[in-house]
């Protein structure tokens, strides 16, 4: 069964949705924006996809991180959602790692220990402005490198994936 783009957008507007929820058509007036993050979660031998639009993603709760990166000048203020909060929201259990994927199909696996031990966020704003694909959006994995000097490594740079639009819980 194929969804019309209006029905898909409308379903996504309602927040985090499971694939079965996306099959329920809704009024065109509810259509809003495209998904900002798709998460694949293995459950009981099957993969389930959960989709967040911007409003549903931000509703999880936001955190601000001020830090420098290898791609920005000086200290920058990022606003985003803690990866641990995203995992809690979707009810992910027994997580060993999280594979984040970008629009250009680049991906990298982040050990769960990182997001458990440090406030790693999926940033959607930089210096108060929403990130777009031109400036590393819709989401950018941000580690608080200035707060924790041990994170200022090339390995952590590889984990700071930008243009993130998908995540797989492993």
Q: Distance between the terminal alpha carbons, to the nearest Å? A: 28 Å
Instruction: State the total count of DSSP E strands.
Output: 10
Which structural class do the helices and strands define?
alpha+beta
Spell the H/E element sequence. Answer: HEEHEEHEEHEEEHE
Strand order of the largest sheet: 2-1-10-5-6
Global Rg: 16 Å
Average of per-residue pLDDT values: 84
Give the low-pLDDT segments: 1-32
Largest β sheet strand count, sense and barrel closure: 5 strands, mixed
Q: Fraction of residues in helices?
A: 10-25%
Count of DSSP H/I helices: 5
Name the overall outline: globular
Strand content: 25-35%
Give the SSE layout.
Layout (H helix, E strand, L loop, with lengths): L4 H9 L23 E7 L2 E7 L1 H5 L4 E5 L8 E7 H7 L7 E6 L4 E5 H6 L3 E6 L2 E2 L9 E3 L11 H6 L4 E6 L1
Question: What would you say about this model in short?
Answer:
It is built from five helices and ten strands, in the order αββαββαββαβββαβ. With 170 residues, the chain is of the alpha+beta class.
Which characteristics define this entry?
about 170 residues, alpha+beta, five-stranded mixed sheet, five-stranded antiparallel sheet, 5 helices, 10 strands, about 20% helix, about 30% strand, globular
Describe it for me?
- The chain contains 5 helices and 10 strands, in the order αββαββαββαβββαβ.
- It is α+β, with helices and mostly antiparallel strands and 170 residues long.
- The strands form 2 sheets. Strands 2-1-10-5-6 form a 5-stranded mixed beta sheet. Strands 3, 4, 7, 8 and 9 form a 5-stranded antiparallel beta sheet that branches.
- The longest helix has 9 residues.
- The chain starts with a helix and ends with a strand.
- The N terminus is likely disordered.
């Amino acid at each position: 069964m194929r969804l019309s783009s209006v029905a898909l957008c409308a379903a996504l507007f309602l927040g985090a949705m499971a694939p079965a929820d996306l099959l329920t058509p809704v009024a065109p007036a509810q259509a809003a924006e495209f998904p900002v993050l798709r998460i694949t979660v293995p459950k009981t031998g099957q993969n389930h996809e959960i989709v967040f639009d911007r409003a549903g993603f931000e509703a999880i709760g936001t955190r601000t991180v001020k830090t420098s990166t290898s791609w920005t000048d000086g200290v920058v203020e990022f606003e985003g959602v803690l990866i641990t909060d995203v995992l809690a929201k979707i009810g992910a259990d027994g997580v060993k790692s999280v594979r984040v994927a970008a629009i250009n199909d680049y991906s990298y696996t982040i050990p769960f220990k990182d997001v458990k031990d440090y406030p790693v966020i999926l940033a959607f704003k930089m210096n108060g402005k929403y990130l777009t694909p031109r400036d590393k959006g819709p989401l950018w994995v941000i580690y608080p490198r200035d707060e924790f000097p041990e994170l200022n490594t090339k390995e952590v740079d590889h984990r700071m994936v930008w243009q993130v639009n998908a995540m797989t819980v492993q």
